Amino acid sequence: MLALGCHLSISKGYAETVRTAHSIGANTFAFFTRNPRGSQARPEDPADAAAAVKRMEELQFAPLVAHGAYTMNLCTAEPSARAFAASVLADDLRRMAALPGNFYNFHPGSHVGQGTETGISQIVDALKAALAPGYPVTVLLEGMAGKGSEIGGRFEELRAIIDGVGDDSVGVCLDTCHVYDAGYDIVNDLDGVLKEFDRVVGLDRLKAIHINDSKNPFASHKDRHECIGDGALGLDTFRNVVCHPLLRGKPMILETPNELPGYEKEIAMLREMENK
Questions:
Q1: pLDDT tens digit string along 207-258?
Q2: Residue 208 pairs with which residues in a beta bridge?
Q3: What is the C-alpha separation between 109 and 98, in angstroms, rounded?
Q4: Which residues are tagged catalytic?
Q5: How far is CA 115 from CA 76, 111, 154, 264, in A?
Q6: 252-254 and 4-6 as β-strands: parallel, antiparallel, unpaired?
Q7: What is the three-class DSSP state of 157?
Q8: Measuring CA to CA, which residue among 92, 22, 85, 6 is closest to residue 58?
Q9: pTM for this structure?
Q10: What does the alpha-carbon distance between residue 187 and residue 180 come to, in Å, rounded to a whole number?
């Protein structure tokens, strides 16, 4: 069975969020570790986390894909802001240890004029400082659309971060909207894109997929998500993604502009594609 889910709020706790995910046909989900546009995190609740882990085991959930705050820019040019972002990363990773065996995904950051090489070096430094030996969660670099000074729009940039950290606990999450907007044509040549990813990064590093259509055309570098089948990628692309033998088994997370009923409909639609 496909590992399918969507972004859900954890405001009522992890265990309740597992229940919500299961109720809409999901067997994984994503959540923001803290306010996505700020820095505040919900109070820690070890008993709730343990109950969620137990329930996910019972339901045979795939790994969850937590998401770092959008405001966490590890390579901003302002030293104090960069240090704060690094402290947020370290705190998120410490908190995620309560959910062992899952993923922590984040946007690598924007170098804001410092240059890609400097930005990558700063991201690497923050990750090396935050990752404890034997850390029980895999950190995922999200592939980006390449807008502005964003890092992660090219596979080579993701590889450079991984090489710099030099740790097997770092992987990649590819986003269908981002990768298409970045100039990798998954509509007409999904096999070719995966072959290129394998050549540069290695498919063993690909741990999760964000499933989103795009409001913008190929190589637009815009990053605006659309509901499945309503954007530039089209339904056939998603059929190819969910049925691809190299992608099966990886958590696939919807980040489309939806509420719960819309997510439930898209999950059912993707499962139907899998079974045809």
A1: 999 999 999 999 999 999 999 999 999 999 999 999 999 999 999 999 999 9
A2: 173
A3: 26
A4: 37, 67, 70, 107, 142, 175, 178, 210, 223, 225, 255
A5: 11, 6, 14, 42
A6: parallel
A7: helix
A8: 22
A9: 0.96
A10: 8
